[in-house]
Amino acid sequence: MTRDELAIDVQDMTKRFGDRTVVDRIGLQVRKGEICGFLGPNGSGKTTFIRMLCGLLRADAGRGTCLGYDVIRGSREIKRQVGYMTQRFSFYEDLSIAENLDFVARMFDIPDRRNAVRLSLERLGLLERQQQLAGELSGGWKQRLALAACLIHRPKLLLLDEPTAGVDPKARREFWEQIHDLAAEGLTCLITTHYMDEAERCHRLAYIAYGKLLTHGTVQEVIDHAGLTTWLVAGPDLHRLATTLRARSGVKQAVAFGNRLHVSGDDDRALSEAIAPFKTADYDWRRIGPGLEDVFIHLMGSSQDNFSS
Fold first, then answer.
1. Which of 22, 71, 76, 121 is most buried when burial is the number of CB atoms within 10 A of its CB?
2. Residue limits of the ABC transporter domain (predicted)?
């Protein structure tokens, strides 16, 4: 993979607030036209990392490039070629959809502003609602407006921070179809999400916890790298069984999935010994491949909170 193929190529990115290191020497490579899922628990440093990438926050240490520009010294150039969708809806609620888009177009000094707004309205299916006030929109339509604003200046990189939080399943699916359409046109996307079904829609994943990058790769690479063995269990009183199993050596997690348990460990032999006494006629045990959620719960459990005493 050459540098010309990479939209993001950074190493050792670090940010401290006081004596707390919230992003700790993270390196990340994202190819042009790739959808990269950026995952981790709340407070893990995802938003801080994104803000450093797009020049809104200066890194304390690190090096590399974003869109070919130095990630430390080229923030002004990077900002003009990035679309950043924040966690919170950040547009004027007393302006219409069209007025909000026109305002963003003015900020980017876009030539033929009226045509740019019209094209953005058409692309995101907002044309018939263009006079509706932003404050009157549902979550799904606010999401469309935010994405339209991110795209109006034709960026090369989209940074989307939990863009589907609070959005219904239909709107989420439509959003991801739009993202894949954009990626097929060559746009690079870095997306934070807590939804495992969305993570599986990404080309590659990076998982951080408490400021440290723990794993990265395709979905299958991330699962394989975790080295987990997982058993699916059905039977009576699973809550009590889970509580008992969690106390046994070799069991890293016992998590309810509906009316089943996923019991996992990172040592196949130790896990087999731990569950052997419970393989009775009362329970149906079946070995399965671990899923992303199993892996991420395991990673969270094995990482140390950088704000703990």
1. 71
2. 8-235
> Does 303 reside within a domain?
no
**How many CA atoms lie within 13 Å of 145's alpha carbon, on the beta-carbon side?**
31
Q: For residue 238, give the nearest of 215, 220, 218, 263 by alpha carbon.
A: 263
Q: What is the DSSP letter of 133?
A: B
Q: Which domain holds residue 134?
A: 93-154
The Cα–Cα gap between 251 and 271 comes to 6
pLDDT at residue 289 tops 50: yes
46 and 167 part of one domain: yes
E strand spans, 44-156: 61-66, 69-70, 82-85
Which of 200, 127, 115, 202 minimizes the C-alpha distance to 152?
Answer: 115
Given this model, what pLDDT does residue 2 score? 67
Is the domain of 19 the same as that of 122? Answer: no
Which of 197, 212, 227 is at the close of a domain? Answer: 227
Token couple for 24: 């700790």
Using one digit for the tens of pLDDT, what is the confidence trace for 148-199? Answer: 999 999 999 999 999 988 888 888 999 999 999 999 999 999 999 988 999 9
Specify the higher pLDDT residue, 304 or 95: 95
Q: Residue with structure tokens 């495992």?
A: 196
Backbone torsions φ then ψ of 149, nearest 5 degrees: -65, -35
**Which amino acid would we find at residue 94?**
D
150 falls within a domain = yes
* Residues 133-152: tens digit of each pLDDT: 999 998 889 999 999 999 99
Shared domain check, 75 and 198: yes
pTM of the complete model = 0.90
Q: Give me the number of domains the chain comprises.
A: 3
Q: How far apart are CA 122 and CA 74, in angstroms?
A: 33
Clarify whether residues 212 and 117 are in a common domain.
Answer: no
Q: For residue 1, what pLDDT is reported? A: 62
Nearest 10 degrees: CA dihedral of 299, 302, 303, 307?
Answer: 130
Rounded distance between C-alpha atoms, residue 132 and residue 104, angstroms:
17
Amino acid at 207: Y
